[in-house]
Write a structure and sequence with these properties.
The chain is an alpha/beta fold and 478 residues long. It has helices spanning 42-59, 64-80, 82-93, 97-117, 154-168, 182-193, 208-217, 230-242, 265-277, 297-309, 329-344, 396-403, 419-428, and strands at residues 6-9, 12-15, 22-27, 32-38, 124-125, 133-141, 144-148, 171-175, 201-204, 221-227, 246-250, 255-259, 287-293, 348-351, 367-370, 387-393, 411-415, 433-436, 455-456, 469-477. Helices cover 37% and strands 22% of the residues. The strands form five sheets. It has a seven-stranded mixed beta sheet with strand order 14-15-16-13-12-17-18, with helices on both faces.
């Protein structure tokens, strides 16, 4: 059974039966409705803002020990309810059930890590020039925050923002993804049952542009956090900047993969095949531009295609499925457009390339395009799907130039057996995160964020709280 959906305002759950405007939530594996999502009216948004402001005046003074206790309880409940939450994610987002379960389980660590780290939000003592003066800094919560999270990792992206804001002593209003809302509703229930006071967390839904305009423009709000596309992120950043609000932006990417001829080629190809198929390629840090040294190209391609051919595509609820549908019907036509453009530019479809008609859902096969020229759209626009363009290189500096030629700078991948090459390339890649010979990002204790058009600020690691805290300097003459 798909769970009942609701908003969560001032400690109360508001279902579709309680509002005038709702929308259907569809299962992308079938294209059929599975639930009704309530939309917030302007009055609902104002109630959420007032509740968050009222709650902040008390929550900011709550002991870090108490905030830590609640976050720990959220982690415990997430693990207890993980199977049920995961089923909802698979039904409305489409990813295989095993991936959905892993998302929930892994994200319990984010609550636990922030529970530990929020007890260590320290200021410092600055030695004075005058011995009669005491100089200190203290870290204080910024206030009411609003957050906007995407559909591809609905549990992961929401809990990161919730845990950071609440752990810092802020309150938060979150608008999650209307296409895959069950995970965010489940999170509201987890915090509610863990004993979070009313108003500290509020969850609303609606037309994204209308909700964001209303919330970000409110003088109550002091911080905006957004994960999503570059164009929308720029619009929200401009709106926040016009009102002098702090922002954290985790935006799109187009992750280059550099495979050198001295790499463990078979291992790299197999690993990258799994990463490309994960969540049907709908991952902001998915490998999406493959540059393979000409001496390793044929071997890499053979192993890469062979690994992808073994991946079963289907309904995420089926036990043998390893890649589910795309999240939206429009994504299918988008993938086909990328493929058709690449073929017109001279590329070859070595695997896949045609949409899976007659499936009833939003499916597109794993596709490998070879000898793709840099002029093809897929080499400079993020595909966000299961299409992998593979091209050759021969010179290190030249491939770095090609990798850095886009305005994106989120994640990147390097495979080499040379320590010298690894250090040189990682130092010169214009990327917020670099993986060398493995996938090692997105852990609770490590910073996650990009540079250039891929955003500003980090989530995770000790940097996580920076966007939610003000630094106050106090100078006192005794």
């Amino acid at each position: 059974m798909y769970p009942e959906l609701s908003m969560y305002i001032d400690g109360k759950f508001i279902t579709a039966a309680d509002v005038e405007v709702t929308q259907d939530v569809l299962n992308p594996a079938t294209g059929k409705p599975i639930g009704k999502l309530p939309h917030a009216s302007k009055q609902d948004l104002d109630r959420a803002l007032a509740a968050a402001q009222r709650a902040f005046e008390k929550w900011r003074r709550v002991s870090p020990m108490e905030r830590s206790k609640i976050l720990r309880r959220v982690a415990e409940l997430a693990r207890e309810r993980g199977d049920d939450i995961a089923r909802g994610i698979t039904m409305d987002m489409g990813k295989p059930l095993a991936e959905a379960k892993a998302e929930v389980a892994n994200c319990a660590e984010h609550a636990e890590w922030h529970a530990e780290e929020c007890r260590r939000i320290y200021g410092r003592v600055i030695p004075p020039r005058n011995p009669d003066v005491r100089q200190i800094t203290v870290r204080e919560p910024v206030g009411v925050c609003v957050a906007f999270t995407p559909w591809n990792f609905p549990f992961n992206q929401a809990i990161r923002k919730m845990a950071a804001a609440l752990g810092a002593g802020c309150t938060i209003i979150l608008k999650g993804p209307e296409d895959s809302p069950s995970a965010v509703v489940a999170l509201a229930r987890l915090f509610h049952d863990a004993g979070l006071p009313p108003g500290c967390l509020n969850v609303v839904w609606g037309v994204p542009s209308e909700v964001s305009q209303h919330l970000v423009s409110s003088p109550i709000v002091r911080k905006v956090s957004f994960t999503g596309s570059v164009p929308v992120g720029k619009q929200l950043a401009a709106l926040a900047g016009a009102n002098m609000k702090r922002v954290t932006m985790e935006l799109g990417g187009h992750s280059p993969v550099l495979v050198f001829d001295d790499a463990e080629v078979d291992q790299a190809a197999t690993m990258l095949a799994g990463l490309k198929a994960r969540n049907a390629g709908q991952v902001c840090v998915a490998p999406s531009r493959f540059y393979v040294h000409e001496k390793a190209y044929d071997r890499f391609l053979s192993v890469f295609v062979s690994a992808l051919e073994k991946i079963q595509v289907g309904d995420g609820m089926h036990a043998d499925t390893r890649m589910g549908p795309l999240a939206h019907e429009r994504r299918v036509s988008s993938m086909q457009q990328f493929v058709d453009d690449a073929l017109a530019c001279g590329a070859t479809a070595t695997l896949g390339g045609q949409s899976m008609t007659g499936s009833g859902g939003y499916f597109f096969p794993l596709t490998v395009l070879t000898d793709v020229p840099d002029t093809a759209r897929i080499m400079f626009e993020e595909p966000f799907g299961p299409v992998a363009p593979v091209t050759r290189f021969s010179d290190t500096d030249d491939v770095l130039r090609r990798a850095n030629s886009l305005p994106f700078g989120l994640a990147s991948y390097v495979f080499t057996g040379s320590l010298k090459t690894a250090r040189y390339v990682s130092s010169n890649l214009e990327s917020g995160m670099v993986n060398i010979n493995h996938f090692g990002i997105a852990l609770a204790e490590t910073p996650f964020g990009g540079i250039k058009d891929s955003g500003m600020g980090s989530e995770g690691g000790v940097e996580s709280f920076d966007g939610y805290l003000n630094t106050k300097f106090i100078s006192e003459l005794s």
